[in-house]
């Protein structure tokens, strides 16, 4: 796009392309040491009890406990990946990775979602096997382990709420732990039912019901993380509406073209676009107006705006590539 390629960070060289943050990054989630500490402690508690729950499930013969232990294992992995995401996310950009390592947290969120979906499939398969070939279940040990699991999961969930819940990693970890809370409740209900009635099919049935609930949350997390990885527009942005709103709201703005909006990481959207101005417009004023509208209406603090100086018939190379 051979338009005007001036670039300004607040200097006075008269450049007409502006790339600015306008101080709005304070509204985006921070990669903080508090988040890192929260998920690390959560990992240690979850992984430690996962071992105890697995042993209890094998001892009692409960699929619900074994399934919940498997879920807690993925929780442990999720929390470990979240910790790594926050740890790497603090690293500054360099010549090869100009945005730094902020997107690492999106990768971990994607991995968390995939592991949850795989786990649900495994639980469903095991549940069918248990229904076809029922096995004895020791209700007493099952109940004790399930109650302890409920206490541990409630503690981890409470701890995660002290972190920044706008982060996709914190969201993903909370989804995992919420699934564990439901798993512990299901295991308690199954243990009580088996103790009083001896009806062991309740164990795999409750495991399947739990898996259905977890599957929905995992699917939503998968879609959200995949949208960021695919450079999709944030959910609050419709590009055609954005164009119309900017032209209507910013005096001197005639046309907006070649708009690209994506998220660098959770809570940090970015945009690039070409704009055409009226003959009497003040370029600096128009740029300030566009950036103000982007920040207030869409939360976009990082934007690069290029002023078209009479070559609007030249297409965007990205759009041409996508059309082939």
UniProtKB/TrEMBL annotation:
UniProt record similarity statement: Belongs to the cation diffusion facilitator (CDF) transporter (TC 2.A.4) family. SLC30A subfamily.
Name of the molecule in the record: Cobalt-zinc-cadmium efflux system protein
Phylogenetic lineage: Bacteria, Pseudomonadati, Pseudomonadota, Alphaproteobacteria, Rhodobacterales
Domain named Cation efflux protein cytoplasmic: residues: 244-308
Residue spans crossing the bilayer: 38-59, 65-86, 106-125, 137-160, 181-199, 205-222
Domain (Cation efflux protein transmembrane) ranges: 39-230
Pfam annotation, one family: Cation_efflux
Keywords: Ion transport, Membrane, Transmembrane, Transmembrane helix, Transport, Zinc, Zinc transport
Membrane association type: Multi-pass membrane protein
Primary location recorded for the protein, binned into one broad class: membrane
Species in which this protein is naturally found: Puniceibacterium sediminis
Subcellular location: Membrane
GO cellular component, one term: plasma membrane
């Amino acid at each position: 796009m051979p338009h005007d390629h001036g670039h300004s960070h607040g200097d006075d060289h008269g450049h007409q392309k502006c790339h600015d943050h306008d101080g709005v990054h304070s509204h985006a989630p921070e990669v903080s040491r508090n988040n890192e500490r929260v998920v690390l402690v959560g990992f240690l508690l979850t992984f430690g009890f996962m071992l105890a729950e697995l042993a209890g499930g094998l001892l009692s013969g409960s699929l619900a406990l074994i399934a919940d232990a498997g879920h807690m294992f993925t929780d442990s992995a999720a929390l470990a990946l979240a910790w790594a995401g926050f740890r790497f996310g603090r690293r500054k950009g360099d010549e090869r990775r100009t945005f730094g390592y902020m997107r690492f947290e999106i990768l971990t969120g994607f991995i968390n979602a995939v592991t949850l979906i795989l786990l649900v499939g495994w639980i469903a398969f095991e549940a069918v096997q248990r229904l076809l070939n029922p096995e004895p279940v020791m209700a007493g040990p099952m109940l004790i382990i399930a109650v302890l699991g409920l206490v541990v999961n409630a503690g981890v969930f409470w701890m995660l709420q002290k972190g920044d819940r706008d982060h996709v990693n914190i969201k993903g970890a909370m989804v995992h732990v919420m699934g564990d809370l439901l798993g512990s409740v299901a295991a308690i209900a199954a243990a009580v039912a088996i103790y009083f009635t001896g009806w062991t099919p309740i164990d795999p049935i409750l495991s399947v019901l739990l898996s259905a609930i977890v599957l929905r949350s995992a699917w939503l997390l998968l879609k959200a993380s995949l949208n960021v990885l695919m450079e999709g527009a944030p959910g609050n942005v419709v590009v055609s509406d954005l164009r119309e709103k900017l032209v209507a709201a910013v005096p001197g703005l005639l046309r907006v073209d070649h708009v690209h909006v994506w998220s660098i990481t959770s809570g940090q959207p970015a945009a690039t676009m070409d704009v055409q101005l009226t003959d009497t417009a003040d370029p600096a004023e128009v740029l300030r107006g566009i950036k103000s509208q982007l920040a207030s209406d869409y939360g976009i603090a990082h934007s690069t705006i290029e002023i078209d100086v009479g070559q609007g018939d030249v297409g965007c190379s990205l759009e041409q590539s996508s059309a082939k």
